[in-house]
Amino acid sequence: MNTLTLLADNLAQNNFGDTQTGGLAGPMGLFIILVLIVGTVLLIRNMNSRLRRLPNKFTSAGPSGDRAPGRVSSAAEPHGDERPQP
């Protein structure tokens, strides 16, 4: 009966996985947060430098010359003072 009581005491002991002595969660959490902050700052700096290198306006490099990609034909658009007749 002594063995049964010892086994029941070990099974009834509830430590919720907290078997390490010395808290490691706080310093590890701080380290992860600092790594994420440093990574975010580096990504922002990289994106800003790439955006500064872009030209102010993009020229059309398509086969039709003056037409931007995704637009309908320039013939369908009125030019200058020409307005469609009602």
Q: What count of helical segments does DSSP give?
A: 2
Measured distance between first and last alpha carbons: 103 Å
> Could you say which structural class the secondary elements and strand pairing correspond to?
mainly alpha
Largest sheet: none
Q: What ranges have pLDDT less than 50 throughout 5 or more consecutive residues?
A: none
* Overall helicity: 40-55%
Task: Considering the chains and any ligands shown, give keywords for the structure.
86 residues, single chain, rod-shaped, 0% strand, mainly alpha
Give the structure's gist in a few sentences:
With 86 residues, this protein is mostly helical. It has two helices and no strands.
Structural features, described:
- It contains 2 helices and no strands.
- It has helices spanning 2-12, 25-52.
- The model has no long low-confidence stretch (mean pLDDT 76).
- The protein is mainly alpha-helical.
- The chain is rod-shaped.
Describe the protein's topology.
Elements (H helix, E strand, L loop, with lengths): L1 H11 L12 H28 L34
